Amino acid sequence: EPFVADEYIERLAWRTPGGGSRGGEAFDPKRLLEEFVNHIQELQVMDERIQRKVEKLEQQCQKEAKEFAKKVQELQKSNQVAFQHFQELDEHISYVATKVCHLGDQLEGVNTPRQRAVEAQKLMKYFNEFLDGELKSDVFTNSEKIKEAADIIQKLHLIAQELPFDRFSEVKSKIASKYHDLECQLIQEFTSAQRRGEISRMREVAAVLLHFKGYSHCVDVYIKQCQEGAFLRNDVFEDAAILCQRVNKQVGDVFSNPETVLAKLIQNIFEVKLQSYVKDQLEEHRKSDAEQYLKNLYDLYTRTTNLSSKLMEFNLGTDKQTFLSKLIKSIFISYLENYIEVEIGYLKSRSAMILQRYYDSKNHQKRSIGTGGIQDLKERIRQRTNLPLGPSIDTHGETFLSQEVVVNLLQETKQAFERCHRLSDLSDLPKNAFRIFSMLVEFLCTEHIDYALETGLAGIPSSDSKNANLYFLDVVHQANTIFHLFDKQFNDHLMPLISSSPKLSECLQKKKDIIEQMEVKLDMGIDRTLNCMIGQMKHILAAEQKKTDFKPEDENNVLIQYTNACVKVCGYVRKQLEKIRNSMDGKNVDTVLMELGVRFHRLIYEHLQQYSYSCMGGMLAICDVAEYRKCAKDFKIALVLQLFDTLHALCNLLVVAPDNLKQVCSGEQLANLDKNILHSFVQLRVDYRSARLARHFS
To answer: Where is coiled-coil annotated (predicted)?
Structure first.
């Protein structure tokens, strides 16, 4: 523990008799002082003893340090001597090693020619046996030494090729025959080993055959036997993948060039198995069933490319991507060259059949929409004047638009886009996709939607027809829904195929043109439909409104709150509002409702100016306009409501007292109106001709 002086003194005082109770009766300071003096002397003696011991130890340490330093110097000298000896030994070893290497080179220089001479002597011995026509050597007669025999006959075969034919024709023939026999034996041995599953024996035989001309035949045999029993299921693509996976694990243990053997196996599978399978599947439907042919082509090409993706995992050489692409192309080249023509032909016939089947189900004979000078002239006149040219056609409420037909057409086109993406060459993809899109525009937009719009336009009755049924808004509703589907397919399936090509602008322009063309006809049809609505209101007002409504014979006996004509017109308008809201969406609803509201206001305004009003009749007119204003609120268009508010204020001029006319005319709602409008309403009063009223208003 650390030394603390205060605690040490306290313990010393406590142990001393008479020193632990300071100030008490037993406290003895003399005794305590004496104890302190004695203890100090003891400490001094102890300090001197320790100091002498320290000095002795220091002297001993200095002595040992000198001895140790001397010993280190001696060791350093010994180390230097040893290092010099080591350098001398290293130089001596290097010298000896140089001599040994030189001697080895000399021995090798002597031994190599000797070995060659011995080998040449053996080959000459074997060659003599072929010259004599009798093979006596054990290497040729013992079947277990086929490996050594193969090495010898391979060398003799090379030598024989250098010999002149006229002198050594017979021996060359014998060597070639033996060469061929051994080659066949080796291949047979390889085949047997493969059937037994002896990988090590297969590797030995393959290594021997590597220097023979029949090595490729050995590979062919291996590939052929690998495929035995491999294609027993219906899925040839899955079988091929499993086979290649199995062979990939084995081929490296057998052949020195496994990537070449595996590539040859894959080439054989593609050019034999897959090509035959694809041909059987496609040729059956190529001329008889275009739909099944295209489905099979897409399916087979997809499965083949998927198989190719799996095979990319294996080592097939340097450029395996190009290798596999060429194999796929070799199978499908004859089918892909004219794919788009088959696709367009099928899409055209299929789309025409879908449309025709729909019109047949409606017992409708499709009218031909004429083209040429007369039709173009009619179209321009109709667009500028909005006049119905030609007789109106009764469609019996049929819009001739079918969501089922549209879904079928879009589904066929979607599948065509998918096939186009998969089967078209990258350079031809945008062009082919544009052709498919053109088919969709022709049959969906032109033959179906545009025809329905033309038929709907022709079915809109004239504005003066009575009890006309207005079905064009149903056409608008369905056309709007269909176009949303068309636009979705354009963005989801066509855009990815053409987004980075010049065809993008062409497709967008074509889409824009067809939209504008349909919008013109929709606008025209909606405009004429609104005219018909106003015409129906005119008929209701003409039939139901009586002159006596606003100039009753008995001013004091008027019991109705508003006229019957007003009730029927408001009921008709509310029905049309519901139709319009159900037929359109977005800003189009507000635009059409504003136009209808403005025309509705103009009709009521002009209608009210056809009558003369007594005081009670004016009150009834105000009640009618108030009801019309309630109907105008249902439009939820600020301008329409403002117009009817102003009309309601104008009707107040029919009942206000002559003295208050000027005050009413200068009110908030009438102050900004033309004075002639105000005057025209005041003139409708029965009492207008009285001098008093004329004077007050002038």
So the answer is: 40-78
Residue 60 lies in a domain: yes
In this predicted structure, what is the pLDDT of residue 253?
Answer: 86
- The answer to whether position 63 is within a domain reads yes
* CB-CB contact of 418 with 298 (8 Å): yes
Is 458 in contact with 392 (CB distance < 8 Å)?
yes
Domain boundary among 73, 99, 118: 118
Domain count, the chain: 2
Quick count: other Cβ atoms within 10 Å of Cβ 644? Answer: 23
Q: Are 618 and 685 in contact, with CB atoms under 8 Å apart?
A: yes
Opening angle at CA 417, ends 322 and 409, nearest 5: 160
Domain ranges, residue 665: 549-696
The whole-angstrom separation of Cα 69 and Cα 80 is 17
d(CA 350, CA 166): 76
For 418-444, how does the pLDDT look when each residue is reduced to its tens digit (9 = 90+)?
999 999 998 999 999 999 999 999 999
Distance CA 260, CA 248 (A): 11
- Helices marked H in 462-563: 472-489, 495-498, 503-544
What pLDDT score was predicted for residue 511? 92
- Is the confidence at residue 291, as pLDDT, over 80? yes
For residue 610, tell me if it sits in a domain: yes
Contact yes or no for 137/126 (Cβ under 8 A): yes
- Pure H helices in 210-338: 215-226, 236-254, 258-268, 275-283, 290-311, 320-336
Per residue in 505-553, pLDDT (tens digit) is: 999 999 999 999 999 999 999 999 999 999 999 999 999 888 888 887 7
Amino acid at the residue 517 = Q
Q: Take residue 90 and report the two structure tokens written for it.
A: 């290293």
Domain of 680, CATH number, reads 1.20.58
User: If you count them, how many residues does the chain have?
Assistant: 698
Residue 189 CA to residue 201 CA, distance in Å, equals 9
Q: How far is CA 123 from CA 67, 136, 154, 177, 505, in A?
A: 80, 14, 11, 17, 79
Task: Return the DSSP state at 442.
Answer: I
Residues 470-508 have pLDDT tens digits of: 788 889 999 999 999 999 999 999 999 998 889 999 999
Three-class SS state of 685: strand
> Of 517, 511, 512, 571, nearest to 540 (Cα)?
571
Report, as an integer, the average pLDDT of 555-572.
80
Q: Which helix (H) or strand (E) holds 319?
A: none
Residue of 414 and 692 predicted with greater confidence:
414
pLDDT at 371: 45
In a domain, 372, yes or no: no
3-state secondary structure of 691: helix
Q: What is the mean pLDDT of residues 331-358?
A: 93
pLDDT of residue 374: 47
434, 381 Cβ separation under 8 angstroms: no
352-370 exposure pattern, b = at least 16 Cβ within 10 A, e = fewer = eebbeebbeeeeeeeeeee
pTM metric for this prediction: 0.69
Q: Which of 69, 96, 118 is the last residue of a domain?
A: 118
What are the angstrom distances between the C-alpha of 528 and each of 388, 389, 522? 9, 12, 10
Average pLDDT, integer, range 41-70: 93
